[in-house]
Amino acid sequence: MFRVIASQMIVPNVHLLTLAAPAVAREAKPGQFVILRAEEEGERIPLSLSDWDADGGWITVVFLNIGATTARLASLTAGIDIPTVVGPLGNATEIENYGTVVCVCGCYGIGSIYTIARALKQKGNRIITIMEARSSYLFYWEDRLAAFSDKIIHITRDGTKGHRGHLARLPEIFRGLEEPVDRVLVNGCTFCMKRTADETRPMGIKTMASLNPIMIDGTGMCGVCRVTVGSVTRFACVHGPDFDAHQVDWEELLQRRKTYMPEEVVPLRTSRCEERHFKSQEKSHE
Amino acid sequence: MSEPVKKQYDLKRREMPKQPPEVRRYNFSEVALGYTPELAIEEAKRCIQCKKPSCIANCPVEIDIPGFLKKVAEGDFVSGIRVLKDKNCLPAVCGRVCPQEEQCEKTCIFHKKGGQIAIGRIERFLADWEAEQRELEMPQIPPRSGRKVAIVGGGPAGLTVAGDLIKLGHEVTVFEALHKMGGVLVYGIPEFRLPKAIVNREVEYLRTLGVELVTDFVVGKTRTIDSVLEEYDAVFVGSGAGLPWFMEIPGENLNGVYSANEYLTRLNLMKGFLFPKYHTPVKAHRKVAVVGGGNVAMDCARSALRLGAESRIIYRRSREELPARLEEVENAEEEGVIFDFLTLPLRYIGDENGWVKAIECQKMELGEPDASGRRKPIPIVGSEVIYPLDAVVCAIGNSPNPLIGSTTPGLKIGKKGNIEADEKTGATSREKVWAGGDVVTGAATVILAMGAGRSAAKSIHEYLRSLSRIPGNGS
Ligand SMILES: Cc1cc2nc3c(=O)[nH]c(=O)nc-3n(C[C@H](O)[C@H](O)[C@H](O)COP(=O)(O)OP(=O)(O)OC[C@H]3O[C@@H](n4cnc5c(N)ncnc54)[C@H](O)[C@@H]3O)c2cc1C
Ligand SMILES: Cc1cc2nc3c(=O)[nH]c(=O)nc-3n(C[C@H](O)[C@H](O)[C@H](O)COP(=O)(O)OP(=O)(O)OC[C@H]3O[C@@H](n4cnc5c(N)ncnc54)[C@H](O)[C@@H]3O)c2cc1C
Ligand code: SF4
Ligand code: FES
Predict the structure, then answer these.
(1) CB contact under 8 A, A267 and B242
(2) Cβ(B157)–Cβ(B438) under 8 Å?
(3) Could you say which of B216, B259, B281 has the minimum Cβ distance to residue A260?
(4) Whole-number pLDDT of residue A286
(5) How far does the centroid of ligand 2 lie from the alpha carbon of residue B450, in Å?
(6) Which residues from A are below 8 Å from B222, CB to CB?
(7) Cα three-residue angle B328-B331-B333, rounded to 5 degrees
(8) What is the mean pLDDT of chain B?
(9) Are B147 and B464 in contact (CB under 8 A)?
(10) CATH 3.40.50.80 domain range(s) in chain A
(11) Residue B371: what pLDDT?
(12) What spacing in Å lies between the alpha carbon of A46 and ligand 1's midpoint?
């Protein structure tokens, strides 16, 4: 059992959960993830590690409330135990001194790129963070990222902060920088990562994305997380989650992520009031 | 062979009651219902107690088969289970899934006449009878040795080592990557063949004996073997062969194409067949093709059927070469699984939304025997056929996961990704590290994994005792 230490909605629909998971915290590295189950009947879902403390024995995840499992996680309060937190899984993000690194992030990626930016900064890179959101009220952790960024640039679709528009503005933002960019990292929703890859490809800047296919075990056992990278099939949980964004077959990833769309809405169409009734019926299958 | 088989012997194997095919193909409850005490006694009485029992010789863990059959014949089930458990710590599991027809029953003296004793069914009966008594015999555990052993993987190999070593007085911790103990027994083999309650019972038994069971812990990720060894005196690796193979043909990443592991894990470990009560979704497919011919393929095809689909097996050789247990093939046939033999998938065809909609196959004919002694399938030119479908399950095999090897310096790994270990003792190239089960042999059987666990436990125990003679040694 893994205890919830803190739970908070940091901006509308984006939640933060801090969990006691000492074994994970001891080994965690930037870019890795955990797999959680919110309850005994729950699905296993992957979430990136957004922060951790080995001494304190805790980890933090930041997530978008998007479906049954994340809704359940969002409803948890301090003191509640959840049955599964396993990790740290996947490979750590490569941290070298590249020179100038642009960290593009949106949505939950703002949280998950934080420790990566921190590690890159500590390695001596110049960090330019580009945050993207629909509107300014959806930005969070700006102070944390500012502490490790030489520059923060905002893009909002409604123009309430920074550049107005979408990631299509990247080329012009890059042109406006004083120095050439040596590497781009992107964390966020699939579309945001694909779009970033599309924009940096013509510029020829190496771009790494943290892929988010459907997963079950997270250890290479089920193969549901397969992605095509440079026309080779890879298991994102063991070969990734970071891959060269210019080599990723993004259409396939977008497609595969939709596999269970019709089923995923089913649990959302319930108030969960009938749970007691189900619980008694299940006994026979235990 | 000392005993001549004469006509007066009772050669009629007692059938085991089963759910009728037209009923069971719509449910996930266990297919076989098990012997009644009367049937078990009748069947056990047929055994003639050979002086040199050829059945024992072909049992991987050398159970005293005539010994327990004799007790059953006498109606003394308490003694029967004791004889059985002396060699096999998971009889309820083995009685259900062991390929007895290839092992003990195959060399039973009555085999030639088709009257081999139904050893597996009696084994299963005894184990279930014991469980029903609800009074599991607790073994005497010697005083604590003060030695600690870590086990990687909660499958049959790991659980066997845990059971043996705790009974010898050592402290045992099992680390399991998934959220449930049992390995393939919980994530792979379906409920209708091996009810999960049975596996849980065995796991709970170990817990009462004092084994520490740690789930959600991936050795190599959460902690490396080297780090574990700072706290434990020895490690046993029983991490199985869990890495799924794919055909590597076009269209394999279309939606609706699964590995057998994914398909079965969703259903069994995650209980997807009870969606939405359990939250892991499973699709309601209409036409499913399963590629492969082993037990895994049969399990997938029969699961698909139970989820309401038309289900077919696509296998490149003929019925004779099917590696699955005959019993499972017959069960599948009775339930209505369609078999396409001598058929090889060439590619999966997708629709405009990225979903698989058909499979193109080539027909084969059998040529000369190959290295495995089976006749090699050869493609027939121009025989391509296309089957429309909406899901494919790829059940062509698994190999060991490379994680332990890649995170344990000095651990020797074979060509096929298996950990190299001594056949007799399970000792690996690394001091204090033993291994056994599928991770050493590649995908095999429950009983072989158990047998390997047994020998490794013995070897580990000897090693731990050698430590104790030098006070202050170890951590
Ligand atoms: C390595 C990795 C790291 C991730 N990190 C984060 C993170 O830090 N924050 C965050 O908000 N999200 C992250 N995700 C995505 C997150 O896993 C999904 O949003 C989550 O599983 C949705 O579950 P749900 O039940 O709430 O929603 P559902 O309604 O079940 O699903 C919504 C969508 O999420 C995806 N999804 C569903 N089930 C799974 C599953 N088992 N595994 C992966 N994706 C699934 C599907 O595309 C689906 O359409 C990450 C994904 C991966 C692979
Ligand atoms: C669908 C299916 C049907 C089968 N049917 C039969 C049958 O009818 N009869 C038969 O005899 N055999 C059958 N088998 C084969 C049999 O189940 C296996 O040979 C047996 O389970 C092997 O046991 P094991 O303990 O070596 O490995 P497994 O049962 O594979 O257990 C290994 C365990 O280790 C865990 N693990 C892996 N890596 C790590 C890690 N790094 N850290 C922590 N834990 C880890 C895994 O999660 C798993 O739980 C079947 C197999 C399958 C897949
Ligand atoms: S089971 Fe068969 S081989 Fe074994 S002792 Fe009985 S009759 Fe002989
Ligand atoms: S999540 Fe199962 S193999 Fe990657």
Answers:
(1) no
(2) yes
(3) B281
(4) 46
(5) 11
(6) 23-24, 27, 86-88
(7) 110
(8) 92
(9) yes
(10) 100-256
(11) 83
(12) 6
Give the pLDDT mean for B51-80: 92
Q: What's the pTM value of the predicted model, to 2 decimals?
A: 0.92
Between B343 and A270, the more confident residue is B343
CATH for A100-256, options being 3.30.200.20, 3.40.50.80, 3.40.50.720, 3.10.50.40: 3.40.50.80
Give B187-223 pLDDT, tens digit per residue: 999 999 999 999 998 899 899 999 999 999 999 999 9
pLDDT at A20 over 70: yes
Structure-block tokens of residue B195: 């009810």
Domains recognised in chain B with CATH numbers: 21-133 (1.10.1060.10), 148-241+402-469 (3.50.50.60), 246-396 (3.50.50.60)
**The two structure tokens encoding residue B224:** 């490396």
Residue B2, pLDDT above cutoff 80: no
pLDDT for A46-74, tens place per residue? Answer: 999 999 999 999 999 999 999 889 999 99
Q: ipTM strictly over 0.95?
A: no
Tokens of A152: 């923060």
Question: Within the 39-78 window of chain A, which residues sit less than 8 Å (CB to CB) from chain B?
Answer: 41-44, 68-69
Q: What stretch(es) of chain A map to CATH 2.40.30.10?
A: 2-89
The yes or no reply on domain A2-89 and CATH 3.40.50.12780 is no
